[in-house]
């Protein structure tokens, strides 16, 4: 089969011109400017090597070649409309509940704000967000999908979709920097208030590094959750370690120095092997992988 030498999308512009009688009316219909319509029609003519429209003061009329092309354009438009309807039916055929476990920060910053758009595309799917201190066991059916960071597991029966590879950094608020300045060395950091953690959060490599590197630094606050670390840092109580996915989200937070040594982590989705092809699961994973890609950039 020969490959078309023109942009199929240009046929939409030609069809609109013929249906509406002018580039101005076609532009209104397509919600673009008049110059774009004229340029796309001219590009189509150049690509096929034929004059398709007769340009008059009263409007555009199809030439003999234009009439022949118009017949195909009408049929292609009909096929595209039917395809769109079929795809919409398939989307609406995706239904059910997806139980997703994730951290509170990921839920509040990235997933919940995008749910409205997800439901517009998949109105019959409902997302049940499960924020737990412990890691739910997907193999036991405690959740359908997990959004997690850290080391990617290799458990049999689980399928991994990597979203991003990133680091932890020390962050300071705009207000803190205006008041105390931005530390540029470990020596300067030793003199600044820092945000420490307790409980399970304190065992994360970035938290351990901070305690071991500046053990005598003044303590601005102590927290048992990343959500509280964010609040403390944004309040200007001190400098605190945060994963890039969270710290970079806030415009009033700024990285101090470079990435924390040994803090690189994977951010990924997990699903049971037996559930990976369920249409509602695929809909969630594909949609939110793209959503995280908007904020995180490509996987590196």
What does this protein structure show overall?
With 300 residues, the protein is an alpha/beta fold. The chain folds into 3 domains: 10-92, Arc Repressor Mutant, subunit A (Orthogonal Bundle); 98-156 and 272-296, D-Maltodextrin-Binding Protein, domain 2, CATH 3.40.190; 168-256, D-Maltodextrin-Binding Protein, domain 2 (3-Layer(aba) Sandwich), CATH 3.40.190. 44% of the residues lie in helices and 22% in strands. The chain has 11 helices and 12 strands. The strands form 4 sheets. The protein has a 5-stranded mixed beta sheet, with helices on one face. The protein has a 3-stranded antiparallel beta sheet with strand order 10-7-11, with helices on both faces. The chain has a two-stranded antiparallel sheet with strand order 1-2.
Q: What are the low-pLDDT stretches, counting only 5+ consecutive residues below 50? A: none
Radius of gyration: 28 Å
| General shape | elongated
Count of strand segments = 12
CATH superfamily of the largest domain: Periplasmic binding protein-like II
Q: What composes the largest sheet?
A: 5 strands, mixed
SSE string, helices as H and strands as E: HHHEEHEHEEEEHHEHEHEHEEH
Averaged pLDDT: 85
Tell me the distance between the termini.
Answer: 38 Å
Q: What is the CATH topology assignment of the largest domain? A: D-Maltodextrin-Binding Protein, domain 2
Order of strands across the main sheet: 4-3-5-12-6
Number of domains: 3
Helix content: 40-55%
CATH architecture of the largest domain: 3-Layer(aba) Sandwich
Q: How many distinct helices? A: 11
Instruction: Report the β-strand fraction as a percent range.
Output: 15-25%
């Amino acid at each position: 089969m020969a490959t078309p030498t023109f942009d199929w999308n240009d046929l939409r512009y030609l069809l609109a011109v013929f249906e509406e009688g002018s580039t101005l009316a076609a532009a209104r219909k397509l919600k673009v400017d008049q110059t774009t319509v004229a340029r796309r029609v001219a590009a189509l003519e150049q690509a096929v090597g034929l004059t398709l429209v007769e340009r008059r003061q009263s409007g555009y009329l199809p030439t003999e070649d234009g009439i022949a092309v118009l017949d195909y354009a009408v049929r292609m438009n009909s096929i595209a409309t039917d395809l769109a309807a079929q795809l919409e039916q398939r989307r609406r055929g995706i239904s059910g509940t997806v139980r997703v476990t994730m951290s509170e920060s990921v839920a509040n910053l990235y997933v919940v704000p995008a749910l409205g758009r997800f439901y517009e595309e998949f109105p019959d799917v409902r997302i049940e967000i499960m924020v737990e201190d412990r890691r739910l066991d997907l193999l036991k059916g405690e959740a359908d999908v997990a959004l997690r960071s850290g080391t990617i597991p290799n458990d049999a029966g689980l399928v991994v979709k990597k979203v991003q590879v990133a680091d932890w950094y020390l962050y300071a608020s705009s207000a803190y920097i205006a008041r105390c300045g931005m530390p540029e060395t470990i020596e300067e950091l030793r003199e600044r208030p820092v945000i420490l953690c307790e409980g399970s959060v304190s065992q994360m490599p970035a938290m351990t590094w901070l305690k071991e590197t500046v053990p005598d630094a003044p303590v601005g606050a102590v927290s048992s959750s990343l959500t509280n670390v964010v609040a403390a840092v944004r309040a200007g109580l001190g400098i605190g370690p945060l994963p890039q996915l969270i710290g970079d989200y806030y415009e009033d937070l700024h990285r101090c120095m470079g990435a924390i040594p040994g803090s690189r982590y994977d951010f990924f989705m997990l699903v049971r092997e037996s559930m990976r092809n369920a249409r509602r699961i695929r809909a969630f994973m594909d949609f939110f992988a793209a959503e995280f890609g908007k904020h995180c950039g490509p996987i590196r």
